[in-house]
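Risk register update: the risk of archive-format incompatibility is retired. Evidence:
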Amino acid sequence: MISVVIPGKDEVGNIGPLMKEICQSLQGLTEFEIVVVDDGSEDDTFGEVIRTAKETQCVARAIRHETSTGQSTAIVTGVKHAAGQYIVTLDADGQNDPADIPAMLAQLPQISAEHFCIAGYRKNRKDTAWKRFQSRFANKVRDALLHDGVPDTGCGLKLFPRDTFLSLPYFDHMHRYIPALVRRMGGEVYISVVNHRDRQEGVSKYTAWNRVWVGIVDILGVMWLNRRAKIAKVAKQETTHG
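Archived output:
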């Protein structure tokens, strides 16, 4: 059972087509549901989720935050309400391609680790040269400090067990550091090259300026968590009765 968790704010023009693509990509492949968390939108994102679910007849649930709390918190809400054993996250703006999800699912039989994350890698990004430069620089700095081995932590398309995510420490912006946090708990991280598309409707909620400062603080916070992580390996266990 797969739960596709989508955090979104003011994405009424994108969420419907995205849900339809998800249904087309997963129908007949696996049992799935779509969980959309409307993070305090000022438009009718919530209503569009309901209308699209009825049109496609795919299992979907819409959850709406009273006020906007940010993408990480919206993902946490979605995962907590999800019924699936595995979670797939993607952005609501349509830049992540649902057609990439089957290839990520195909990796599951080869994974033996209890805790893991399959992280999308937007190898050919549809962004300006300046934005691509910023992302490359930020990813190199992050990897040098956190050693998470992920070339593109900003990609919203990821797959991981629900139990793994709920075991991670929560903080604002933690969704960008899921691979590093999974490694922190002794889990494995895998990479899947994915497509990247132009946004069709609306505007991005992020700018280079509002990312850089919170990114520095976040990386320092994750470094602090990593240095204090203790992984216990049980060497022996015995149960007696009477």
